Amino acid sequence: MMLRAAVAVLACVAFAAPSYAQNAKLRHSIGTDISFSSDAEGTEVVRLGVNADWRFRSSDDYLGVRLERNFYRVSEGERDSDRRLYLRVAKPVGNWKANATVGTDGDTILGAATVVDESPLRKEFFVERDKVETRQGVSRPIYHTFAGAAVDVPVDETTQVTLVGGVQAFTGENVRLHARGNFIKVVKSDWGLSLQLRSRYFHNSEPREYDYYSPKWYAEVIPVIQMRRFRGGWRYVAAAGFGVQRDSDSAWRQSRYLNLRVSSPQNRQGWVGKAELTYTNLPVTSAAERYSYVRVMGGLARNF
Questions:
Q1: Is 32 helix (H, G, I), strand (E, B) or coil?
Q2: In terms of pTM, does the model score above 0.70?
Q3: What is the CA radius of gyration of the chain?
Q4: In this predicted model, which residue has the larger pLDDT, 108 or 77?
Q5: Would the CA dihedral through 106, 67, 53, 297 be positive or negative?
Q6: How many domains is the chain built from?
Q7: CA 129, CA 272: separation in Å to the nearest integer?
Q8: How far apart are CA 151 and CA 154, in angstroms?
Q9: Which of 34, 88, 204, 294 is 20 to 30 A from 262 (CA-CA)?
């Protein structure tokens, strides 16, 4: 039943996408990516993906499919995997940009969709659905659906406040309410250097329902320094933060964050690449103490 529903969703999205056959200058794209993540409890996830876009104008305007194979090794040595098929579509409409990756693993609908208003008062609406990457999340399985909105409020030419609110529903009874706020101050525009104060809070309606991290409530405040540079078409981003976090079951403790990203310009043959490293100690499983999570990702695509 869920597989038939997912196929129906894909058909609707494909039907709703505009026809581009009349434009003889349309381009194509094919690419692959791989990511690896590991946490302090020994859970490891490898994601292998292949994207094939039969229409590609830019990273904001494309239509194609994505094939994905995921491998899971949970903390007790158990292994599992799944296969996924997605439809990929993105299209700008005036100041708005919309994109969606919607598909199935054969059991349920998965993916993500985002609609963004790129006006000075930037607004974003999003929804995503995926599997919870814990032992029970893989074996049962457990899924989550997260929907929300964000708004960027400019204070002056160098200062901005970002507000995010969302609702996350898990398999079972738990519903998580999210609130986030970021204060961003550009201190050296020619360096791309900014100072940020990031805060978040969430509340669970059914604490500790399964083995994923779900205290009654969680709060975090973390100052972050970020630098974004462009050179020869290459884009570099580095962000690091150190702050505090606590939840309903523990006292204040350290909060750490690191993110490194690089992306290349398109060369004459149409090749583009990207890579990313993320580290955080925001817990994902029920073991909150001494938690760490690392994810690395790399991708390569050719537009032609």
A1: strand
A2: yes
A3: 20
A4: 108
A5: positive
A6: 1
A7: 28
A8: 10
A9: 88
Instruction: Quote the domain boundaries for residue 182.
Output: 2-303
Q: Which two tokens stand for residue 1?
A: 């039943």
Per-residue confidence band for 291, with pLDDT thresholds at 50, 70 and 90: confident
In the structure, how many helices (H) and strands (E) does the chain have? 2, 16
CATH number at residue 191: 2.40.160
- Alpha helix (H) ranges present in the chain? 2-16, 135-139
Long-range contacts from 59-64, C-beta under 8 angstroms, 24+ separation: 59/90, 60/90, 60/91, 60/92, 60/97, 60/99, 61/90, 61/91, 61/92, 62/29, 62/88, 62/89, 62/90, 63/17, 63/20, 63/88, 63/89, 63/90, 64/29, 64/88, 64/89
DSSP 143-170: EEEEEEEEEEEEEETTEEEEEEEEEEEE
Angle at 212 between CA 209 and CA 216, to 5 degrees: 55
Digit-coded pLDDT (tens) for 54-98: 999 999 999 999 999 999 998 776 889 999 999 999 999 988 999
In a 3-state reduction of DSSP, which class is residue 22?
Answer: coil
Report, as an integer, the average pLDDT of 232-259.
96
With beta carbons less than 8 A apart as the criterion, state whether 116 and 122 touch: yes
Residue 88 CA to its chain's centroid (Å): 15
Residue 21: the pLDDT is: 39
